[in-house]
């Protein structure tokens, strides 16, 4: 029975799907540090995490039984994807499942900050009645600048337009503008015209420190900043300075450079206590609906990979879409992508009298993935011969 370890309080659907598929599932509520994770992965074939657990090359080197990692979130920068691929460990994430939840919290933040609801709420709880329109605005007619026009940015663009906002976006890649959104030629152009700037960039290393004091200084006086992407993208000290000076009228921050590992752990930030600043504990995608959808999506992907060899939407292996046809024996062979491997595989199969009923090959950078269906059982000699090939990374026999 394959063993799965699920960390960080994943939705019960994640466990239910895997148990139905025959996994022995162990769950833990918090994240694990490197040494704890090494110990916990003994005998584990499938690891499920969110954003707090870091799967390093050293962790992977000490987990010979690990076959797949499910990142039950959008980001995968907490996993050493290259090291995982080199060891034949497939990684899957949920690139779409919490998009709506993040978009909705962005809309909520924009309206709350533009109307200064945080200030009014704090004063009312303190017993002060301060009925005033000063500094409070409608979002209709204001300009939203979206940095990163991917799944979240595009859906946010559509909803913001429905609220009457004008939308300008900036992305390093060519993206199709939706509705009346306008592409900014440069980041500076976006910052100069936007009343609200929201970041939705990915976790690639090049985005570290992307938005600091110079970028904030280039924003319009009195504008609002949102960061619902990655904690290391925005300099929190620069945000604090801009709030204190009045250059920014508000900010909403959901992600931080250093975040507690477990629920209930203490949290510290230079942004605490500032006026018209919304701080949330990395809950942009944390709705019950999103977590259920993520649990289903990722568990189905890793289940299918272990049972059929399908790598559709894997973030680090060549993508091959497969089902499990009846009556065949499947060889899933991950190898280094060099000329002649497929010919050697087929020669080995022919030498051992294995009849090929179907075969698919895909490559991705340094790796190749060839899946072969045989009409009769595959002997241990065949498996050992293929594993002995110098280009072999990982071979799995799926019957």
UniProtKB/TrEMBL annotation:
Function as written in the Swiss-Prot or TrEMBL entry: Catalyzes the reversible oxidation of 3-phospho-D-glycerate to 3-phosphonooxypyruvate, the first step of the phosphorylated L-serine biosynthesis pathway. Also catalyzes the reversible oxidation of 2-hydroxyglutarate to 2-oxoglutarate.
Enzymatic reactions: (R)-2-hydroxyglutarate + NAD(+) = 2-oxoglutarate + NADH + H(+); (2R)-3-phosphoglycerate + NAD(+) = 3-phosphooxypyruvate + NADH + H(+)
Pathway assignment: Amino-acid biosynthesis; L-serine biosynthesis; L-serine from 3-phospho-D-glycerate: step 1/3
Documented EC number(s): 1.1.1.399, 1.1.1.95
EC main group: oxidoreductase
Domain of life: Bacteria
UniProt domain ACT: residue ranges: 330-399
GO process annotations (BP): L-serine biosynthetic process
Keyword Cell inner membrane: no
Name of this protein: D-3-phosphoglycerate dehydrogenase
Gene3D superfamilies assigned: 3.30.70.260, NAD(P)-binding Rossmann-like Domain
InterPro entries for the chain: ACT-like_dom_sf, ACT_dom, AHAS_small-like_ACT, D-2-hydroxyacid_DH, D-isomer_2_OHA_DH_cat_dom, D-isomer_DH_CS, D-isomer_DH_CS1, D-isomer_DH_NAD-bd
Higher taxonomy: Bacteria, Bacillati, Actinomycetota, Actinomycetes, Micrococcales
Keywords: Amino-acid biosynthesis, NAD, Oxidoreductase, Serine biosynthesis
């Amino acid at each position: 029975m394959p063993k799965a370890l699920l960390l960080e309080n994943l939705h019960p659907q994640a466990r239910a799907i895997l148990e139905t598929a025959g996994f022995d599932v162990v769950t833990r509520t918090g994240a694990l540090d490197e040494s704890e994770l090494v110990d916990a992965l003994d005998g584990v074939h499938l690891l499920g995490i969110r954003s707090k657990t870091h799967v390093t090359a050293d962790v992977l080197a000490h987990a010979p039984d690990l076959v797949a990692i499910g990142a039950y979130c959008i980001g995968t920068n907490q996993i050493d994807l290259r090291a995982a691929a080199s060891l034949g460990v497939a990684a899957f994430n949920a690139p779409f499942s919490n998009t709506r939840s993040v978009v909705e919290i962005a809309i909520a933040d924009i309206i709350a900050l533009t109307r200064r609801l945080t200030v009014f709420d704090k004063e009312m709880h303190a017993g002060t009645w301060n009925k005033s329109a000063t500094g409070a605005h409608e979002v209709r007619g204001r300009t939203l600048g979206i940095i990163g026009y991917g799944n979240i940015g595009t859906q946010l663009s559509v909803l913001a337009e429905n609220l009457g906002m004008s939308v300008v976006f900036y992305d390093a890649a060519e993206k199709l503008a939706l509705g009346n959104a306008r592409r900014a030629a440069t980041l500076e152009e976006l910052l100069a015209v936007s009343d609200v700037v929201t970041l939705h960039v990915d976790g690639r290393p090049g985005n570290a420190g992307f938005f600091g004091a110079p970028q904030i200084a280039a924003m319009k006086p009195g504008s609002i900043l949102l960061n619902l992407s990655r904690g290391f993208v925005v300099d929190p000290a620069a945000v604090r300075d801009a709030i204190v000076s009045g250059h920014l009228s508000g900010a909403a921050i959901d992600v931080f450079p250093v975040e507690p590992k477990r629920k209930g752990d203490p949290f510290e930030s230079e942004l605490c206590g500032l006026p018209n600043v919304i701080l949330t504990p990395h809950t942009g995608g944390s709705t019950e609906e999103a977590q259920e959808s993520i649990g289903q999506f990722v568990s189905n992907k890793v289940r299918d990979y272990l049972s059929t060899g399908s790598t559709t939407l894997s973030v680090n292996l060549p993508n091959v879409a497969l089902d499990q046809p009846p009556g065949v024996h499947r060889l899933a062979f991950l190898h280094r992508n060099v000329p002649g491997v497929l010919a050697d595989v087929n020669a080995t199969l022919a030498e051992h009298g294995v009849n090929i009923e179907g075969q698919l090959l895909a490559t991705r950078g340094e790796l190749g993935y060839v899946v072969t269906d045989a009409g009769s059982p595959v002997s241990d000699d065949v498996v050992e011969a293929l594993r002995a090939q110098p280009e072999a990374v990982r071979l799995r026999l799926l019957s």
